């Protein structure tokens, strides 16, 4: 199998400080010899994500995620190993071998490559139909009437899927793709009444390609041209496309979001495309769904502020309320700006222009609490005594949900001044109607199914493990940082590790040290492909910062491991002896008694060796 040479991978890995790379996605704070932060791979309120600068490794004690800078980029950007190396090589300015020499030709890699290829071909074909054929004229007219220029249509590779059953099917079949594969890719659908018969999933629709962070087409959104339901149809969930983990236009907007510190969250494809055409280049959309935690995390990683711009109708208010809660759950900073006259961003930009849009974004934005108070005020009967009291009570309850005491007092002072009531009375009301529940960890997100579904043992429960398992873990930790210990273990206990993952990791370490005379945990982890072993090695390497190095401990761990199998066998022998005596099998009884004596001698020898 062709692959990137190890020395090139090492050059790429050594080029980066893992703390710098992780800091682009996670807010890290120094804690002793490591850096800690909230894990980007599962939701938590208490930091359990640790990054070791000396070892160039990360590990989460909450969900088990771990590895080096390459595996971090793999999981955070949802890339394959080869794609992650290419991504980092490009950043580092390091030339890779020719693609033919480095190509990963594993079945999984070939399938992934073909999935990208068929989506790329479909996107180009839909675009060709839109701009170059008679069939695309109505769709092109629709887009031009919506105010899009040909340049914008070209840049976003907008297309048209004709209202026929087999246009894309035949096009891709002629290029060697099988119908079943295309159905799994989300481009075709299977006929429910005739299994094995397939047809184009998208028909009679304007097509919006959806890209991943590297600009590759991974799915589509299709808008019906004319009447029909559903109005919008997205690609189904596939190996490439998970709707809740993608944001429309992020591939173009990410750099502008990072530069400005602000992400503008709009509602639909046309809103984002029109905004881009008008020079608003930091806008994205959530693919027609309610914002998910994974999408909110992506926005938070790239932006200090997430500005939601919707029209002021009830649907827009509901979307702002719902999405702001999700953003707050990941400790993001949501803000809201309401467009006037019930206009959505697309219509507003065409009617008033980019400068007016920017003014509202800059001067008209407000915190989510201020927005909720504004909505509450507009829906309340403030002219009556009862209406005013009800509004103030509801407003105080909203303010009570704000975490910051300073913010809470500021809102209360504003209310007191505006409605001529005392601050003290509002504070008393807050104590009566508000509660401040303690934050609890949210369920794990679906960021990385390998990480979330893996068996894991939290740091707190390590002390509850049986002594022999603790000994195996500690011995492996020493082996990771000291090849001499690895040699000693190999010569002494060979394959006596009881936990399957421990035994596998030991074998890989033995092999690694045959080619590498010095310990280098980060480099060793680069040689692993099994995610469970990567997590285990990363966790042990991070724990090595506080390893116990008292004389004699290695021998003690070895004895504990050796004794485990002996003790386990000794526990079984009495029952077997009883069974043999009961059956009158005295030959077996003598054999078992001799085995029992030999095992006890071995245990005694281990104890003497340990004491000596």
From TrEMBL:
Is Transcription one of the keywords UniProt gives this record? Answer: yes
GO biological process terms held by the UniProt record: DNA replication, synthesis of primer
**Which EC number(s) does UniProt give?**
2.7.7.101
> Any idea which UniProt keywords this protein has?
DNA replication, DNA-binding, DNA-directed RNA polymerase, Magnesium, Metal-binding, Nucleotidyltransferase, Primosome, Transcription, Transferase, Zinc, Zinc-finger
Q: Which domain of life is it from?
A: Bacteria
Q: Which cofactor does it need?
A: Zn(2+)
What remark does the entry make about the cofactor?
Binds 1 zinc ion per monomer.
On subunit structure and binding partners, the annotation says: Monomer. Interacts with DnaB.
Q: What's its job?
A: RNA polymerase that catalyzes the synthesis of short RNA molecules used as primers for DNA polymerase during DNA replication.
Q: What is this protein's record name?
A: DNA primase
Gene that produces this protein: dnaG
């Amino acid at each position: 199998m062709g692959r990137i040479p190890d020395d090139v991978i090492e050059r790429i890995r050594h080029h980066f400080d893992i703390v710098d790379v992780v800091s682009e996605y996670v807010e890290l704070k120094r804690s002793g010899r490591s850096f800690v932060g909230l894990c980007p791979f599962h939701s938590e309120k208490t930091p359990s994500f640790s990054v070791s600068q000396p070892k160039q490794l990360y590990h989460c004690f909450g969900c088990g995620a771990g590895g080096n800078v390459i595996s971090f980029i793999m999981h955070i950007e949802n890339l394959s190993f080869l794609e992650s190396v290419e991504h980092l090589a490009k950043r580092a300015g390091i030339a890779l071998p020719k693609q033919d020499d480095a190509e990963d030709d594993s079945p999984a890699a070939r399938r992934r490559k073909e999935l990208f290829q068929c989506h790329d071909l479909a996107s180009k074909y839909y675009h060709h139909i839109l701009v170059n054929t008679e069939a695309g004229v109505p769709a092109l007219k629709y887009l031009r009437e919506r105010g899009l220029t040909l340049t914008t249509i070209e840049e976003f590779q907008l297309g048209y899927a004709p209202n026929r059953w087999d246009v894309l099917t035949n096009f891709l079949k002629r290029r060697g793709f099988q119908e079943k594969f295309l159905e799994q890719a989300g481009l075709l659908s299977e006929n429910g009444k005739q299994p094995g018969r397939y047809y184009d999933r998208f028909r009679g629709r304007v097509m919006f390609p959806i890209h991943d962070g590297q600009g590759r087409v991974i799915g589509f959104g299709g808008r019906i041209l004319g009447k029909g339901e559903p109005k919008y149809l997205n690609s189904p969930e596939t190996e490439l496309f998970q709707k809740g983990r993608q944001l429309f236009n992020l591939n173009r907007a990410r750099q502008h979001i990072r530069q400005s510190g602000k992400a503008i969250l709009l509602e639909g494809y046309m809103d984002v495309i029109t905004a881009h055409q008008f020079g608003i280049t930091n806008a994205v959309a959530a693919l027609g769904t309610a914002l998910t935690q994974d999408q909110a995390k992506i926005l938070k990683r790239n932006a200090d502020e997430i500005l939601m711009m919707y029209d002021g109708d009830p649907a827009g208010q509901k979307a702002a309320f719902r999405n702001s809660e999700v953003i707050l759950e990941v400790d993001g900073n949501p803000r809201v700006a309401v467009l006037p006259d019930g206009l959505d961003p697309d219509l507003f930009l065409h009617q008033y222009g980019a400068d007016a849009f920017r003014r509202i974004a800059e001067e008209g934005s407000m915190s989510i609490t201020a927005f909720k108070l504004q909505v509450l005020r507009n829906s309340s009967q403030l002219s009556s005594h009862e209406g005013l009291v009800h509004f103030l009570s509801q407003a105080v309850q909203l303010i009570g949900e704000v975490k910051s005491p300073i913010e809470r007092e500021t809102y209360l002072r504003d209310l007191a001044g505006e409605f001529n009531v005392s601050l003290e009375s509002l504070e008393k009301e807050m104590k009566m109607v508000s509660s401040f529940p303690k934050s609890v960890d949210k369920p794990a997100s679906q960021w990385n199914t390998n990480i979330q579904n893996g068996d894991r043992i939290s740091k707190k429960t390590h002390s509850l493990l049986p002594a022999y398992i603790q000994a195996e873990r500690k011995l492996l930790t020493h082996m990771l940082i000291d090849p001499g210990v690895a040699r000693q273990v190999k010569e002494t206990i060979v394959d006596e590790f009881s936990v399957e993952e421990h035994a596998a990791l030991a074998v890989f370490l033995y092999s690694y040290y045959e080619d590498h005379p010095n310990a280098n945990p980060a480099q060793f982890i680069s040689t692993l492909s099994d995610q469970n072993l990567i997590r285990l090695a990363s966790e042990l390497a991070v724990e090595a910062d506080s390893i116990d190095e008292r004389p004699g401990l290695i021998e003690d761990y070895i004895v504990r491991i050796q004794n485990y199998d002996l003790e386990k066998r000794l526990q079984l022998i009495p029952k077997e002896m009883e069974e043999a005596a009961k059956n009158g099998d005295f030959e077996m009884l003598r054999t078992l008694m001799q085995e029992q004596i030999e095992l006890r001698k071995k245990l005694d020898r281990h104890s003497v060796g340990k004491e000596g």
